[in-house]
Amino acid sequence: MPEEQLRQLMYGYGYEPHFVTVSDPSATEAAHRDFAAVLDTCIDDIHALQDAARTSPAGADAGATRWPMIVLRSPKGWTGPAVVDGNPVEGTWRSHQVPLSEIHTNEGHLRQLEDWMRSYDPGSLFTEAGELRPEIASLAPRGDLRMSATPYANGGRLLRDLVLPAYADHAVEVSHPGAEKVSPMITVGGYLRDVIERNPHNFRLFGPDETASNRLSAVYEVTDKVWQPRIEDVDEHLARSGRVMEVLSEHLCQGWLEGYLLTGRHGVFNCYEAFVHIVDSMFNQFAKWLKVHRTLSWRMPIASFNYMLSSHVWQQDHNGFSHQDPGFIDHVMNKKADIIRVYLPPDANTMLAVTEHCMQTRDTVNVIVTGKQPTPTWLGPEEAHLHVRRGIGIFGFAGSEEPGVEPDVVLGCAGDVPTLEAVAAAGLLKAAIPGLKIRVVNVVDLMRLQDSSEHPHGLSARDFDTLFTTSKPVVFAYHGYPWLIHRLTYRRTNHENLHVRGYKEEGTTTTPFDMAMLNQIDRFQLAMDVIDRVPVLGATQALFRQDLQDQRQRAWQYTRDAGKDLEAITGWTLDESSPDDAK
Amino acid sequence: MPEEQLRQLMYGYGYEPHFVTVSDPSATEAAHRDFAAVLDTCIDDIHALQDAARTSPAGADAGATRWPMIVLRSPKGWTGPAVVDGNPVEGTWRSHQVPLSEIHTNEGHLRQLEDWMRSYDPGSLFTEAGELRPEIASLAPRGDLRMSATPYANGGRLLRDLVLPAYADHAVEVSHPGAEKVSPMITVGGYLRDVIERNPHNFRLFGPDETASNRLSAVYEVTDKVWQPRIEDVDEHLARSGRVMEVLSEHLCQGWLEGYLLTGRHGVFNCYEAFVHIVDSMFNQFAKWLKVHRTLSWRMPIASFNYMLSSHVWQQDHNGFSHQDPGFIDHVMNKKADIIRVYLPPDANTMLAVTEHCMQTRDTVNVIVTGKQPTPTWLGPEEAHLHVRRGIGIFGFAGSEEPGVEPDVVLGCAGDVPTLEAVAAAGLLKAAIPGLKIRVVNVVDLMRLQDSSEHPHGLSARDFDTLFTTSKPVVFAYHGYPWLIHRLTYRRTNHENLHVRGYKEEGTTTTPFDMAMLNQIDRFQLAMDVIDRVPVLGATQALFRQDLQDQRQRAWQYTRDAGKDLEAITGWTLDESSPDDAK
Predict the structure, then answer these.
(1) Which of A82, A128, A162, B386 has the fewest CB atoms found within 10 Å of its own CB?
(2) pTM, 2 dp
């Protein structure tokens, strides 16, 4: 690119470019002098800009500040062999890989390599014995100034635990299971507000312009979004400094948080679930880095990378098929089990307890997926905390099992919408088939489904079999692609009786319950699945099954006629459908 | 962003910006006039540039051409309500979502909405009965000029079948299985060269500067890389026009090929396997589009999107852990089965037959993964063609089964390196345990593993059971993450006897055989797996198993001492290890 065009581009991005152009490859010393001079100029410029900013009136347009940028234009393969086998190499595309590829067989190549290496004057750097000369070695910094030892490159050394707000101050009191419909994301927004207030210097919230859309606006009660250009009167929550970093680039959010963690601080990246795939490849590299980092004894642990994914596949408001993709969970789970954690809190209190836990972890990637819409709060503060510590557990209030008797069927669930549908399905079954013993198992920590030999959070075979039985049908409603549950459980004793419903890439701009029906994880379908799978039911419950089909058809038709869900669905509560209360 | 800065940015990108700035929101007619005038100017400028290019000497610096760009700066929410509930809305961030959110309950909001809608003067557009006025309707284009009907937006109408070269002209003759070590990518490079020669106007090859690195350089015998800036004397294969589109941006390659297919042409995106994750999110949207496109009767089928992934996880030359990620296959398989195809050709001839097939498909996404290093060619031209048509098959030459007798063990394999290791493992076993009946099953079309009810390419239960038996151990060596094979087969009769080896995120910059050992898919490990899984072996073959362990340890140590693989590994051929030939 011509220098003038490059200058315009840098200007356009708001930088003041300084060019160092090496036009004569042999004039290395002149180039070094030029570069040193430009470095000095830039440092002076930076100091001048800083001084001006410190004395300028608050609110001045910081966006008008042009920070210096150095553009070094050196020949490709500079100082390497100029010509090889008659072809120009230095300064051309031929320097891209191995300029001398036949050193084992070609005497000329070998000699060129030797000349090249000798051009660095090794005699001035090394002794005859091949050791670095003491006067050179002494130039290297010592102690914490060494590149690998400086706390600025080994952020774990600077890491301080977060001062966390009290869980109890934010948890939702519930008189009975499902009584309070609360948004998990709004609840955690209040918690994050207090995290920011208590940790004003080492916590930041990152997101692609979705903090409000993901219902975390409470943070703006105590901080602002960082904004450098001009701030208009009409703008809200924008300031020169703040703890919220928003930019409509998932790539930038990912990179910012990675860097922030590496300097020993803490953070959360909140994102629409479907669009976090944009950083799949960046996540891969970070996960690979984290795996290796954990093996290096001198590297200190850093705070975990927390993804908080909402606006998820099942609740889309005015968005549609393009916004529906729960596959980031599948993507992260290909990486080393040691570093990957996935949580699907089914309600506000479990979301809070999961978040509190993740804020204290180190050297892992935590993926938390939950909804932003009001959802029944199934568990009270203490129960939710215990449930999250276990990672998996029986929702006794939702089932109908009796102590000492193995249940007839297990209804598994993971995710907020699937849990609601599973609890509602259990209610339908309990009301219609009083003798049926149903167990509802909720999974918050998805890795509990794996064997303890495969994942640090995995359940032992004994624990798994106790929860899911060794021979009874398991109907499982899952937030994401259903085959992931099979992948996690294929070695389990009872796997052949496991039937999973989940998102199977059917969607459009429609109501939440229609989304459930399109993908067959709705309460009616789950109840029908139970009838189909439990041997003692089947033909004996054909009339009830037909009734479920008809209820489903009515709900289906209503969405198409009215453009919304039936009041019987949206207004459903555990109380009304519970046979105990209905009597 | 200030206009001057934006102008510099556009200049930097090589455009000539024309600004239309609406400073007075109420002056809509003036804005329309301004915009129309700028449009006229730009069309004139484009014609002038085209005329100049046509008359300029060849080789002039096309990069210096500044194409016009229109920058329309209009108020956000332009013509919407100016103020709502005392807050300014038009021209502010408040226009981003729903400016009047309470029309059902707030009389003032409803009236503002009515005023806003009436500002479009509906009486001039619609009759009293609510129909579009004939004089307005008549402005709409007819026939092929309708937006949805024009062939330029429904590219399938313009699609012509490719004129394909003869498969036989490129297939490798092999005297016996594995006799010729040939690079699958170099072989297909010659084929693609002939595709380009025969189809000079409707086929392009896209890639992020990796066409040569992925060994497809043969295409440069008949075409060049498109390059608009100055072309230097030292440059090779660059020209103003050509069929190879290279840019080091996977995003741009993905977008270019999507657009090219949509205009009714054909193409291939060749990419390093690990880095194609960069376009995960773009792939998602394209796959969703394709799913819907197939349901619209008026949309004509387009050519399939072909990913050709090489430089894969098992063969990295000088690259390492960062370049190892076979998870794109997992990612694409979450999308609708109807449109997803995944092929893992084990050698040059199968690669050729797969490519020939993919070039003729419509409305699918084909992912082809194979290596660029010389690999034994297992099948002759006709056998390879039949194998690819089947998608899965028994490598009779590699096993030791007898007609009419069920094998003792099945060695499954998918991918070039896993196939080599599986064939070598079978050779080790045949030589040491003469009576053992081994079947080697190779999978080219990964979707064959799924049930026919789940994927159009799926095998019926009967066919699957015939190949993999219903009760014998299956040791499977797979190219990617091993759990994918479980996900595809968990419903199969014999699934509980299936044991899969694959990439488990262990890697570094090392030799190919060390990579296999690090992830335990090497021939020695596979042979040990067979001993461990076949009930009649086990304790009776402890000495042979110990010998395998020792051979493995020697190979392991040699890589660390010598920095390369043992000659016994790199020089291994089927002949030498085959007991039949050795006798």
Answers:
(1) A128
(2) 0.94
